[in-house]
Amino acid sequence: MEGHGPGRPPRRTEAQQERLEDILDSGLVANGLDSGVWTSPMIAWVLESESGVTYHAGHVRKRLHKMDLSLQRPRRLLARADAREQDR
After folding, report:
1. Is 86 in contact with 78 (CB distance < 8 Å)?
2. Domain limits at 37?
């Protein structure tokens, strides 16, 4: 079985994977959150409320990585700094 690693097969179905993609595409506000950016614990909370299955935040990150999604961190800007210097 090429492409399959050892261990337990995933318990999530293709429909559950599509639901995760729909949740992420619909955004935070549609899922009752208003923080501005998704975090792994937030996604785990939404998945638990949707399916009743509890996911660890680290596992959520692994699932997102398999979906070719990556962590994005906001760039901090200093309020009183020179804007041209910060754009370098």
Report:
1. yes
2. 14-66
**Cα 83 to chain centroid, rounded:** 31
User: For residue 6, is it within any domain?
Assistant: no
Confidence of residue 77 (pLDDT cuts 50, 70, 90): low
Q: What's the pLDDT at 3?
A: 65
Is 55 exposed, middle or buried (CB count within 10 Å of its CB: 0-12, 13-18, 19+)? buried
Q: Is 29's pLDDT higher than 60?
A: yes
pTM beyond cutoff 0.70? no
Whether residue 8 lies inside any domain: the answer is no
Q: Which pairs count as long-range contacts for 40-47, CB under 8 Å and 24+ apart, including other chains?
A: 40/64, 47/20, 47/23
How far is the C-alpha of 38 from the C-alpha of 60, rounded, in Å?
11
